[in-house]
């Protein structure tokens, strides 16, 4: 019997017959401000599932280790079950969002080399910023695991910055999650969609990501659908 083992802000995780495999259901829900702003958004689950599946397939084809097995249906995918490392690994190529507000600078400043930050994944604590020695002291992760996670994050940044550029989009920043397989191997987990990255149109500078929702800039689903359309085109060119 399949059981709902977790319902988060955007996805449900279901057990399957195989104890090492989970079924992910992408929901039509958007949240911001750690869940304080929350809305049902028709079509969001489907488009995010499609974008994330294509991106995980792309990264897997480039040799990166991920949890992804396959897309199952419009809103579902199968993934390898992992023990999530409770860290949100953020990479920033250009200043935006909290980086800009925290340090009192404008959005859009390109960094000479990417900024790397970690946040402790805890809804109760509001995902506080955490540094390496704090993560090690709390035994959330080992130094070797952190090294692997940053190495994978840098590979993701290189591959996806180039891919999004072909789509006429700048990859401003993004958040990744990693997990441990049963044998301890670290793999990229969760999702990659406009929900957890910032994408700016190279020509118009328009926001093509969740900032449309966070900042009430208009309808979200058509924007994500345009990202998906461009992604499919770029992947066709690559093939
Ligand atoms: P949140 O928990 O932040 O509200 P979601 O709604 O996206 O986020 O829920 C998905 C949850 O499943 C997240 O907590 C994420 O860390 C976790 N997760 C992602 N991939 C896997 C996996 N392969 N195995 C186990 N848990 C996973
Ligand atoms: N991000 C995320 N989940 C979070 C916090 C941030 O996916 O709980 C992503 C966000 O979409 C952006 C990047 O991480 O691409 C950096 O976000 P930032 O710290 O600027 O916070 P925000 O302004 O998005 O709250």
UniProtKB/TrEMBL annotation:
Pathway named in the protein's UniProt entry: Purine metabolism; IMP biosynthesis via de novo pathway; 5-amino-1-(5-phospho-D-ribosyl)imidazole-4-carboxamide from 5-amino-1-(5-phospho-D-ribosyl)imidazole-4-carboxylate: step 1/2
Pfam families documented for this protein: SAICAR_synt
EC number annotated for this UniProt entry: 6.3.2.6
Keyword Ligase applies: yes
Cleaved signal peptide residues: none
SAICAR synthetase/ADE2 N-terminal domain span: 4-230
Reactions the enzyme catalyzes: 5-amino-1-(5-phospho-D-ribosyl)imidazole-4-carboxylate + L-aspartate + ATP = (2S)-2-[5-amino-1-(5-phospho-beta-D-ribosyl)imidazole-4-carboxamido]succinate + ADP + phosphate + 2 H(+)
Family recorded in the similarity comment: Belongs to the SAICAR synthetase family.
UniProt name for this protein: Phosphoribosylaminoimidazole-succinocarboxamide synthase
Gene: purC
